[in-house]
User: What shape does this take?
Amino acid sequence: EAGVAQSPRYKIIEKRQSVAFWCNPISGHATLYWYQQILGQGPKLLIQFQNNGVVDDSQLPKDRFSAERLKGVDSTLKIQPAKLEDSAVYLCASSLGWGPPEKLFFGSGTQLSVL
Amino acid sequence: GENVEQHPSTLSVQEGDSAVIKCTYSDSASNYFPWYKQELGKGPQLIIDIRSNVGEKKDQRIAVTLNKTAKHFSLHITETQPEDSAVYFCASFNFGNEKLTFGTGTRLTIIP
Assistant: This one.
């Protein structure tokens, strides 16, 4: 079974630039999550999709972050403009469906450095 | 909102000895508690979990215990091996608001 695919693995940008991350969840997984993991901290949920609808985006800084999941499969997360404090690993995860996120599968993440 | 505290932040254990990581949570409505292992350059991977109607669960060398009254749960790794070296995260999930909250992580180092 193929895992959660993310790209790019690394990205270095200057502050105020834009950046986009891509995620392809495990086939058949209805729920997709984007997490932000700052060095030395646990992952923090940014946004959760159920198919192509947003379930929870309460912690997404909507003035600069946006995400979409067209057709309920792939997803992109965008930051525009980036700030220094956005330096983190951005993790995508997926699970089969609603309810407790049992069997939550994570991708390897995109490490973003904002200079 | 839910707050999950995890300690210690770092733990070094001699190979073959046991390791214990502890977490406390604040939301009494939380009822599912997974543990994740994160190796360098990889995403977290679920290693064991426990629901609130169970006090203990074991899977080979790893076990998790839950004390709902005290709102704390622990991960126990016995007969530690070098491949157990990683960062471990506890988490709590609330069925009501569907939120999964992670602890701050424990970096476990197994000394050969």
Remarks:
- Chain A has a mean pLDDT of 92.
- DSSP finds no helices and eleven strands in chain A.
- The CA atoms of residues 20 and 30 of chain A lie 22 Å apart.
